[in-house]
């Protein structure tokens, strides 16, 4: 079957339009994606599991006439289920956990016409900001193979940046869509808590911190993908108010004249690399040139208190998931089952009391109210997505037995993103800057709860003013053997 030469020239909606016009077939697009994966995978290691035969069967059976009919797509290897396949979460403990059903969001992806042919690499249990695992190996950044693609949706970001697919599913419990989007020069939006159902397997993720969406090359793909999967399922503990109109219609609409707060330092006080500060300042200047009003401001909150609450919620939920799996296997959870950082979460969780967990929930709910008050005077909060450009592989490996060294590397790298998992607000990383040595550096922009529409309007305005779709990783990036 023919490989499509113009595959890279189109985003996901563009490829779907080629299918709808009869210029290409879903089978041709799938085989092009498979060929691309086989070409670039030895270098980047973005995909944990390939499901080529399932995808071919879906194409042969006939695809729904959705907005993405025939477009190849990848799921993240944690948190979602595809019937008949393994979702390991990057953990050997789940390496034979075959799903007997599709997650609700996967059903919606299929109804949109997407052709799922694999799952992308993620650190164990999605716990890290770099995708480096014992089970599936390390994912490398297509822009520089010696550096991280980010995490925990690092495989998804690497696959999109390398041109395997134009969009891939991700999830974000502390920055896991926005971090890899920044590292790989992509657009990545974390939606409002409750916007996309986590059913039927979960009501919430990590105490409400985690959400599901995607990494894309274009703003309109992100908007249309959210249209395809947004909406509560009966029984969901959270639900966001439906948008006034489809998000796809927000792309290209006038965002108005916005009041923008510019944050250059995280609540933790972590130093920020000059490249990341430059990226945020240049974004602020661009926003001003577009007619928005920008003032430097610091959001409210105690970084240490909020960080402690996040760690409590994450650790407790990780222990719960691992213990349930061990019980299913008929044995006790053992240190040898997981990587050292994951085991550290287990050890911490076992020290927690019920009131400590309740206190942590109270902290994040209070922080959400503080952020809501902050946004009464600020439409948008802008900051660097990360405190460093894409970091070298190694220091953030979860198999690092030196937990203090690992934790320090994580905090140096990503001190900004988790604030918006805590508050539940929508937040996006926009690829507006590349460093002098050619590395992508994202800028984060966040809005009030349930206001993804404003973010899509603003992102589309920025995409027009400073386009990024044409940017591609070098053919022979640093680290090429």
UniProtKB/TrEMBL annotation:
Keywords from the UniProt entry: Hydrolase
Enzyme class: hydrolase
Protein origin, superkingdom: Bacteria
Pfam families in alphabetical order: Amidase
GO terms for MF: 6-aminohexanoate-cyclic-dimer hydrolase activity
Protein EC: 3.5.2.12
Transmembrane segments: none
Domain (Amidase): residue spans on this chain: 28-454
Entry-linked PROSITE patterns: AMIDASES (PS00571)
Record-stated family: Belongs to the amidase family.
Protein name, entry field: 6-aminohexanoate-cyclic-dimer hydrolase
Gene name of the encoded protein: nylA
């Amino acid at each position: 079957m023919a490989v499509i030469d113009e595959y890279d020239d189109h985003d996901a909606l563009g490829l779907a339009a080629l299918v709808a016009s009869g210029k290409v077939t879903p089978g041709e697009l799938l085989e092009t994606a498979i060929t691309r994966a086989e070409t670039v995978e030895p270098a980047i290691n973005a995909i944990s599991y390939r499901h080529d035969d399932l995808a071919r069967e879906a194409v042969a059976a006939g695809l729904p006439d959705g907005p993405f009919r025939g477009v190849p797509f990848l799921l993240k290897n944690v948190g979602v289920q595809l019937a008949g396949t393994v979702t390991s979460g990057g953990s050997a403990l789940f390496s034979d956990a075959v799903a007997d059903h599709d997650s609700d969001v996967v059903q919606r992806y299929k109804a949109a016409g997407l052709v799922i042919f694999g799952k992308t690499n993620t650190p164990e249990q999605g716990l890290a900001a770099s995708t480096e695992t014992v089970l599936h190996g390390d994912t490398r950044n297509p822009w520089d193979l010696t550096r991280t693609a980010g995490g925990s949706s690092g495989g998804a970001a690497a696959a999109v940046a390398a041109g395997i697919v134009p969009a891939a599913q991700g999830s974000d419990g502390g920055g896991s869509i926005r971090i890899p989007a920044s590292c790989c020069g992509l657009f990545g939006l974390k939606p409002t808590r409750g916007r996309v159902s986590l059913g039927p397997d979960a009501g919430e993720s990590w105490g409400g911190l985690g959400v599901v969406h995607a990494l894309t090359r274009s703003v309109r793909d992100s908007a249309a993908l959210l249209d395809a999967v947004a909406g509560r399922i009966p029984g969901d503990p959270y639900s966001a108010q439906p948008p006034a109109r489809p998000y796809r219609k927000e792309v290209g609409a006038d965002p108005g004249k916005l009041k923008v707060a510019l944050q250059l330092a995280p609540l933790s006080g972590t130093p920020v690399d000059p490249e990341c500060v430059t990226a945020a300042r240049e974004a602020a200047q661009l926003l001003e040139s577009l007619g928005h009003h920008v003032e430097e401001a610091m959001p409210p909150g105690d970084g240490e208190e909020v960080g402690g609450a996040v760690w409590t919620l994450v650790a407790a939920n990780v222990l719960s998931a691992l213990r349930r799996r061990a019980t299913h296997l008929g044995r006790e959870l053992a240190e040898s089952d997981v990587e050292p950082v994951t085991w550290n979460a287990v050890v911490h969780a076992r020290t927690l009391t019920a009131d400590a967990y309740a206190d942590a929930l109270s902290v994040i709910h209070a922080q959400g109210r503080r952020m809501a008050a902050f946004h009464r005077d600020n439409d948008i909060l802008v900051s660097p997505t990360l405190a460093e450009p894409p970091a070298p592989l190694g220091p953030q490996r979860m198999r690092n037995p030196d937990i203090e060294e690992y934790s320090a590397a994580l905090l140096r790298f990503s001190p900004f993103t988790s604030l918006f998992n805590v508050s539940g607000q929508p937040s996006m990383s926009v690829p507006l800057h590349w460093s002098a040595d050619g590395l992508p550096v994202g800028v984060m922009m966040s809005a009030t709860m349930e206001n993804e529409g404003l973010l899509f309007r603003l992102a589309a305005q920025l995409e027009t003013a400073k386009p990024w779709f044409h940017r591609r990783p070098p053919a022979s990036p640093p680290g090429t053997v």
